[in-house]
């Protein structure tokens, strides 16, 4: 009979489901009771199978005895997942009731006073025992309360995940109970006994629904499930060989192999499970990181928009202040006293500092948003450096500082520069050198640099005898909001944006910028290298115009 082949498979699958669930989280109470339920179901299915192999009163009684334990375990498990807890009195009462029916099932005449024939699945014909009605009532009431609990829990919960889980469990229980009622009660009334044992398959369906509701996607991890099936199959294979073998030596060998396979099999499954869990955790962390990164980008964009808006609003009044101070200093509104002239000069310098700071914020916002635009044109670097030198000569008048400019010995080739933005870079480098050099010198130097390939570069440097920098400062000086340790003590007003912007602007010009220093207190030098390609680019432009005319 086909059921005689299917039922041993059902026993194996029941044990497998219990093993899969308990190994995932042995500490969870619902997992432990599910494993117990699966083990009890396996024993009950085995008893059903044996009624078809050996139609004895013992196996008939065992189907009812183990069925009582299975019903009680199902009720306890359902109470745990629905109520989240189980009272001691209720647990004691259910266990006691199950134990009474378990023991009574083996009492002569309790299930069957006499029988004519025992069919596969524990169905019999003959005279029912005095306890069969009590057992049936126990079965019907227990299944009714289990279904009621699951149905109420399904409608009561507001969490979509729990609602789906309870729905799976409820339908699984309904299918199992319906199959059991059909094969054990309804069909035998019409003298149909050939479907006995199908209730074991129905209960397996119930367990499968529960397993899916517990683990959801984790149960169907291909790598994990394949490993578990392989290991469990080896266990069953060796166990069957032990029972089928008649030679003691073979039994000892198979027994030793079984012990080793069980030990290493558990280690293998735990290793694979650990790997799967780590992968899931990494995947979850990656998703959390992606969300956090998206949120940070959004906040960074809001910050950039705010900085851009605020900088635009500040720039106009600062420019107006600068204009009026210049007019007052030039005597447009009449002659001014020397004391007032000195105060106006200080106001002008502070206002200029604010204008530069606002300009830095605006440029930072443009760079980060990708809106930085350049107007490249052929420019003689000597003229730009000379004008910057002349401007800062006025600044260092009141300082114990010598400002020097070493001009190139030969005329330099022109470079393609954005006049305003590159001038801002030079101004920033010279301004920093002056700020961080309390006394001594600041030297500007411009020279031509020839490469090994014959190309010419423009090399500009600003050297000072100031506070200098450590190796750690040099490594991070061009990062956003980065400031050297020594410089922070000398000048506390800087924000660490100037060099970051200078590097971005120089890089966009196709050049390089770097810094050198022999250490703290030994001064520093900032270098800017630019390709002198203005003539080459001009020729390319003229050639392109010539081709277009043709």
Give a brief description.
By secondary structure, this protein is of the alpha+beta class. The protein contains 16 helices and nine strands. Helix content is 68%, strand content 11%.
SSE layout and pairings?
Layout lengths: L1 H23 L4 H25 L3 H27 L4 H18 L6 E8 L3 E6 L3 H25 L3 H30 L8 H18 L6 H23 L3 H82 L8 H32 L6 E4 L1 H15 L5 E6 L8 E4 H17 L4 E11 L5 E9 L6 H6 L8 H6 L7 H11 L3 E6 L6 E8 L2 H16 L1
Parallel strand pairs: 4-6
Antiparallel strand pairs: 1-2, 3-5, 6-7, 7-9, 8-9
Helix pairs in contact: 1-2, 1-7, 2-3, 2-7, 3-4, 3-5, 5-6, 6-7, 8-9, 9-10, 11-12, 12-15
Description:
- With 550 residues, the chain is of the alpha+beta class.
- The chain folds into three domains: 2-220, Rhopdopsin 7-helix transmembrane proteins (Up-down Bundle), CATH 1.20.1070; 307-368; 374-540, Histidine kinase-like ATPase, C-terminal domain (Heat Shock Protein 90).
- It has 16 helices and nine strands.
- It has helices at 2-24, 29-53, 57-83, 88-105, 132-156, 160-189, 198-215, 222-244, 248-329, 338-369, 381-395, 419-435, 471-476, 485-490, 498-508, 534-549; strands spanning 112-119, 123-128, 376-379, 401-406, 415-418, 440-450, 456-464, 512-517, 524-531.
- Strand 8 (512-517) and strand 9 form a beta hairpin.
- It is elongated.
- The model has no long low-confidence stretch (mean pLDDT 78).
């Amino acid at each position: 009979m086909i059921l005689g082949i299917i039922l041993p498979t059902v026993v194996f699958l029941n044990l497998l489901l219990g093993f899969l669930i308990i190994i995932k989280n042995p500490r969870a109470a619902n997992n432990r009771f599910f494993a117990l339920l699966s083990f009890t179901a396996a024993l009950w299915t085995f008893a059903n199978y044996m009624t078809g192999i050996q139609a004895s009163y013992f196996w008939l009684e065992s189907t009812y005895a183990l069925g009582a334990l299975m019903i009680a375990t199902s009720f306890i498990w359902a109470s745990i997942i629905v109520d989240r807890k189980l009272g001691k009195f209720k647990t004691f009462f259910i266990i006691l009731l199950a134990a009474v029916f378990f023991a009574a099932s083996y009492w002569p005449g309790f299930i069957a006073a006499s029988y004519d024939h025992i069919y596969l699945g524990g169905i019999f014909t003959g005279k029912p025992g005095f306890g069969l009605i009590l057992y049936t009532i126990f079965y019907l009431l227990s299944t009714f309360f289990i279904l009621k609990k699951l149905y109420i829990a399904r409608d009561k919960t507001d969490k979509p995940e729990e609602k789906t889980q309870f729905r799976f469990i409820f339908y699984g229980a309904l299918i199992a109970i319906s199959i059991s009622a059909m094969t054990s009660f309804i069909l035998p009334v019409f003298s149909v006994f050939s479907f006995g044992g199908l209730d074991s398959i129905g209960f397996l369906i119930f367990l499968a629904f529960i397993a899916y509701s517990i683990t959801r996607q984790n149960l169907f991890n291909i790598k994990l499930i394949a490993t578990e099936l392989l290991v469990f199959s080896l266990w069953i294979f060796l166990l069957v060989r032990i029972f089928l073998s008649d030679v003691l030596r073979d039994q000892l060998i198979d027994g030793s192999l079984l012990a080793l396979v069980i030990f290493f099999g558990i280690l293998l499954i735990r290793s694979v499970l650990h790997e799967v869990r780590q992968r899931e955790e990494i995947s979850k962390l990656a998703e959390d990181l992606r969300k956090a990164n998206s949120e940070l980008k959004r906040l960074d964009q809001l910050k950039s928009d705010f900085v851009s808006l605020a900088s635009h609003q500040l720039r106009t009044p600062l420019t107006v202040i600068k204009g009026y101070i210049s007019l007052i200093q030039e005597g447009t509104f009449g002659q001014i006293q020397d004391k007032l002239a000195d105060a106006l000069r200080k106001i002008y310098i502070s206002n200029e500092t604010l204008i530069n700071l606002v300009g830095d914020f605006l440029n930072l916002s443009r760079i980060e948003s990708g809106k930085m635009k350049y107007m490249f044109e052929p420019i003689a670097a000597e003229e730009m450096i000379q004008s910057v030198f002349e401007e800062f000569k006025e600044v260092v008048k009141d300082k114990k500082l010598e400002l020097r400019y070493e001009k190139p010995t030969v005329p330099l080739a022109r470079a393609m520069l954005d006049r305003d933005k590159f001038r801002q870079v030079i101004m920033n480098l010279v301004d920093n050198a002056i700020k961080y050099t309390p006394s001594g010198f600041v030297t500007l130097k411009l020279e031509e640099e020839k490469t090994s390939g014959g190309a010419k570069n423009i090399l500009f440097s600003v050297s000072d005898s100031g506070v200098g920098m450590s190796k750690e400062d040099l490594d991070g000086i061009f990062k956003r909001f980065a400031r050297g340790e020594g410089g922070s003590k000398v000048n506390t007003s800087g924000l660490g944006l100037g060099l970051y912007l200078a590097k971005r602007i120089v890089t966009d010009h196709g050049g390089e910028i770097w810094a050198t220093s022999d250490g703290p207190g030994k001064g520093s030098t900032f270098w800017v290298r630019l390709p002198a390609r203005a003539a080459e680019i001009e020729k390319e432009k003229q050639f392109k115009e010539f081709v277009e005319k043709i």
